[in-house]
Design goal:
By secondary structure, the protein is of the alpha/beta class. It contains 15 helices and 19 strands. Strands 9-10-8-7-6-5-4-1-13 form a nine-stranded mixed β-sheet, sandwiched between helices. It has a three-stranded antiparallel β-sheet with strand order 14-15-16, with helices on one face. Strand 18 and strand 19 form a beta hairpin.
Length: 447
């Protein structure tokens, strides 16, 4: 680490505080119940014909609980539970499409969870049939699905390819056996390798790996080995997320406190180590926590300034409409955000008994919100941003310490995050967030 990027422990301690991840603006913990099913229906009806859309489907079921998990999920091996959820999904898709009033062209589809591949094969097939009937899939649409290597089979890989999926995200997290045991996600490297080979043999060649730093028992040595194992398998994209320890929200995470968790200094070292090895391995850094091969579309989007950020992280998806289906799913429309009820049981009851969209909260965007969102998302995606003059007075009190510490520069209205400041990007974005500046709501730590 050279003088330009050197960061002291004192500097980390000074700025290591909770801030949003800014996968949306305002962040989801500012959503309120004023946005109802009626509000969402009205927003759907305003989508013009020809508008391009993306769809996210939340499939929350897993075979087992991972102790680090922060997702909306349910452990089950009962197929009838998953089939009932499928019926609710079909009902929600039908209600949303009825409100839109025309067949929306679809450019991106993402199945997240939970573990989407834990769903029975015929349920996945039925769900895809329903989506293809409801939406007009573009010929070059990206169809992505999250995969757990522990439950993957060669037959499942072939099914996913048959259904049209052309990208898969593998939950690798860490390849060290001691770390895997602590987090209750044991998957030997051979299991991950088999999964990768099966997917590629089936024709799903665009692969993402999800890695996590900040887990129990991680060290520089184990992190370097995880990265080396990853480089050997050569996925197209890699996310390197910091573990968010929030046992006050996700009570099962308290189980990890029986093991030593890395402190802020150790987390920074783990991230820096992984970043250096990934860059040396030929990957391009994307935003704050993603990496991609130079020829991947995400790297191209970062290069040409079209990179975007959404609830899955960084994306090259520029569609103005994102429809979320399933328990806890969030939709993003020009009018604002609408989130479904989190309870899987209530989600099903609302749709199958009440025959109503399961919207329980959201946020209607004002013109000021949209302006702040544009600046914040630009900061999250690029290191140099032109800031509207009228936003600077409110942001300056929070910006000035960052400027004094060499983390950002401000020339007239041009804000630049220095190499030294890359680790603090979320803090820079928060300077332009009037909600977070005035809020004590919980967020993941900045570092």
């Amino acid at each position: 680490m050279d003088a330009a990027t050197a960061i002291s422990d004192a500097l980390v301690a000074k700025y290591d505080r909770p801030v949003p991840r800014y996968t949306s603006y305002p962040p989801a913990n500012h959503f309120c119940p004023d946005v109802t099913a009626r509000t969402y229906t009205d927003w759907l009806a305003q989508i013009p014909e020809g508008a391009l859309g993306s769809v996210y489907v939340h499939l929350p079921f897993c075979a087992a609980l991972c102790r680090y998990c922060g997702c909306t999920m349910q452990v089950t091996r009962k197929n009838d539970v998953m089939y009932n959820y499928l019926k609710a999904l079909q009902a929600e898709i039908a209600l949303a499409c009825k409100a839109i009033g025309h067949k929306l062209p679809l450019r991106h589809l993402h199945f997240g969870g939970g573990t989407p591949t834990h769903m029975p094969d015929d349920a996945l097939r039925t769900l895809m049939d329903s989506l293809r009937q409801a939406f007009d899939f573009a010929d070059d649409a990206e169809l992505a699905i999250e995969v757990d290597p522990r439950t993957m089979t060669q037959a499942k890989a072939r099914l996913l390819a048959e259904l049209g999926f052309n990208r898969a995200s593998l939950g690798v997290q860490d390849t060290d056996p001691q770390v895997q045991t602590a987090i209750a996600r044991v998957q030997p490297l051979t299991m991950v390798t088999d999964c990768v080979n099966w997917l590629r043999e089936a024709g799903i060649i665009r692969l993402n790996f999800d890695l996590i730093y900040g887990l129990p028992h991680q060290s520089v040595a184990t992190m370097r080995q995880t990265v080396a194992d990853t480089l050997a398998l050569r996925p197209d994209r890699i996310s390197l997320f910091g573990y968010a320890h929030i046992p006050q929200v996700k009570k099962h995470q308290a189980l990890l406190e029986a093991h030593p968790l890395p402190d802020a200094h150790a987390r920074r070292t783990l991230f820096a180590t992984a970043t250096a090895d990934l860059l040396a391995g030929g990957y391009t850094a994307i935003g704050i926590d993603h990496f991609a091969l130079p020829e991947d579309s995400l790297a191209q989007a970062a290069k040409d300034g079209t990179l975007r950020r959404n609830f899955q992280g960084y994306t090259d998806d520029d569609c103005p409409v994102l429809l979320g289906f399933g328990a806890s799913a969030i939709s993003q429309l020009p009018g604002g955000y609408a989130q479904n009820v989190v309870s899987i049981k209530t989600y099903g009851e609302t749709l199958l008994s009440g025959h109503s969209l399961p919207t329980v909260r959201g946020y209607g965007l004002s013109e000021a919100d949209k302006a702040h969102r544009e600046v914040i998302m630009a900061i999250m995606c690029r290191d140099t941003v032109d800031v509207p003059t009228h936003m600077l007075p409110a942001a300056l009190p929070a910006l000035l310490p960052l400027i004094a510490d060499g983390l950002v520069t401000l020339t007239d209205t041009t804000l630049h995050i220095t190499p030294r400041g890359q680790l603090f990007t979320r803090l820079v974005a928060a300077c332009f967030d009037p909600y977070t500046q005035a809020s004590s709501k919980p967020h993941a730590r900045a570092i």
